[in-house]
TrEMBL record:
Residues 324-347 are annotated as: Disordered. One of its GO terms (biological process) is proteolysis. Residues 324-341 have a biased composition (Basic and acidic residues). It comes from the Bacteria. One of its GO terms (cellular component) is cytosol. The keyword Protease applies. Residues 22-85 form the Metalloprotease TldD/E N-terminal domain. Belongs to the peptidase U62 family. Residues 227-458 form the Metalloprotease TldD/E C-terminal domain. Residues 112-219 form the Metalloprotease TldD/E central domain. This is Peptidase U62 modulator of DNA gyrase.
């Protein structure tokens, strides 16, 4: 174990030849993953990864090196390498490392390494059995449980010293239903910044039934109609749209590179005045939560869009330095092998005042989206295309029948501007967000929302102009 004096010496070596800032990220990570396919356990993986990354920032340039040797000698060697890459602009930087205390704390009740592997295997097998027994049309099931126990030490030339422990557990199931030449899938996942107490809140058999039920519903569904129509996004749909069509565009590196539709729009109205977008790393037990980001900044709650007005972006250390401001605590990295970059944590549209049931009743002819699938977005202009994993027709204010094959096509900022009802509920989904080749755990959420008009792609026939009508209540 390295002392603070050792880390101070390493940091001094890193900026020996110049630089404005240097930091060290030391990681000890233990992972376990168990997967079941074809009605049997296919894999049980576990491993320990230990390493450190050292970074020097000089102006807008960054030098970065990482190593598996976390001894004093190994870190000094890596520090010497980045010090030469930083240039020849020596500065006298003095600092003394002082421990930083978090603004929030998280407790882990059932640490993954205290749960026997046999118990984890039994959990996976039972979920597999439950999904397969749900309906004889379920032909394939894949179940997985994974956990991560991560200890990090972070120190920098500002004098900040951080020690943190993160425990994340995730459970997922994917089902495939088939009947009369039609194949449909149903997916479900739960997880959080928690140990195996996750399953005190989420029964894995219930998660399995929901995934299998989704596949069967979509097998029985009629083809989705196509055309412009009002859409209700249920809270259960999760925040895929806010994450992809809005969130990435509010990350400061894309803004500074002019690769975001939201660049230079701070202070402008970019959404309806009933829309508020928040990124919050401090929410208890959520998958994207943490005490500190991967640069040692305290986890924070950041309001990005307030009552429709763009008020803030998400910054890491480097992007904040470029604007001579403070980081928002959004510097994240996949591992010690990666440089931190601005990333979302738990991003959501804040609940509004409308009753979700009344939102549905306000639609005469339209689409209810209960679960989003995959999709793609262009952060430069905000255009997106998303698959609907579970959708239903709304007729005369009633949810009448499931539909399959629907897609949503539109422009993120434009859609947010026309949202005219926001529910008082909130539903979360989890995932691993990819950016610049790095994946980090995130959550996203939204309340039930009404979008008066959006392009729905489908294989069915549109009902004509009446499908665009919205009944006011």
């Amino acid at each position: 174990m390295l002392s603070r004096d050792d880390l101070q010496d390493v940091l001094r070596q890193a900026i020996a030849n110049g630089g404005d800032f240097a930091d060290i990220f030391i990681e000890r990570k233990k992972t376990t993953g168990i997967g079941c396919e074809d009605d049997k356990i296919e894999r049980i993986n576990s491993g320990i990864d230990v390493g450190a990354g050292i970074r020097v920032i000089s102006g807008e340039a960054t030098a970065y090196a990482y190593t598996n040797d976390i001894s004093r000698e190994g870190l000094m060697k890596a520090a010497k390498i980045v010090s030469h890459a930083a240039g020849e602009n020596k500065r006298d930087i003095t600092f003394n490392l002082t421990e930083v205390k978090p603004v929030v704390d998280f407790e882990f009740q059932k640490m993954p390494d205290t749960v026997p592997t046999d118990d984890k295997v039994a959990l996976v097998l039972q979920a597999n059995k439950t999904a397969r027994e749900y309906d004889k049309r379920i032909k394939q099931v894949a179940v997985g449980v994974g956990d991560v126990m991560q200890q990090v030490t972070i120190a920098n030339t500002l004098g900040n010293y951080v020690e943190d422990e993160r425990v994340r557990t995730r459970f997922m199931i994917n089902t495939v239903g088939a009947s009369e030449g039609v194949i449909q899938t149903g997916y479900n996942a739960v997880g959080g910044l928690v140990g195996y107490e996750l399953f005190d809140e989420f029964n894995p058999e219930d998660v399995a039934r929901e995934a299998a039920g989704r596949a069967i519903k979509m097998l029985e569904a009629q083809p989705a109609p196509a055309g412009k129509m009002p859409v209700v996004m249920a809270a259960e749909a999760g925040g895929t749209m806010v994450h992809e069509a809005c969130g990435h565009g509010l990350e400061a590196d894309l803004v500074q590179k002019r690769l975001s539709v939201y660049a230079n729009k701070k202070g402008e109205q970019v959404a309806a005045d009933i829309v508020t977008v928040i990124d919050d790393a401090t929410i208890k037990n959520k998958y994207g939560s943490f005490r500190f980001d991967d640069e040692g900044e305290k986890g924070q709650k950041t309001v990005l869009i307030k009552d429709g007005e763009l008020v803030e972006y998400m910054y890491d250390r480097l992007t904040a330095m470029k604007e001579k401001r403070e980081s928002t605590g959004n510097g994240r990295r996949e591992s010690y092998q990666d440089k931190p970059i601005p990333r979302m944590t738990n991003t959501y549209i804040a609940p509004g005042k409308d009753d979700p049931e009344k939102i549905i009743k306000s639609i005469e002819n339209g689409l209810l989206v209960k679960k989003m699938g995959g999709g793609q977005v262009n952060t430069t202009n905000g255009d997106f295309v998303f698959d609907v994993a579970e959708g239903y027709l709304i007729r005369d204010g009633q949810v009448v029948s499931p539909v399959r094959g629907a897609t949503l096509t539109g422009n993120g900022p434009e859609v947010l501007k026309i949202v005219d009802m926001v529910g008082n509920d909130l539903g979360y989904t989890i995932g691993t967000c990819g950016k610049d080749g790095q994946g980090v755990p995130v959550s996203d959420a939204q309340p039930t929302m009404r979008i008066p008009e959006i392009v729905v792609g489908g294989t069915g026939v549109s009902d004509g102009p009446t499908i665009r009508r919205i009944r006011r209540i």
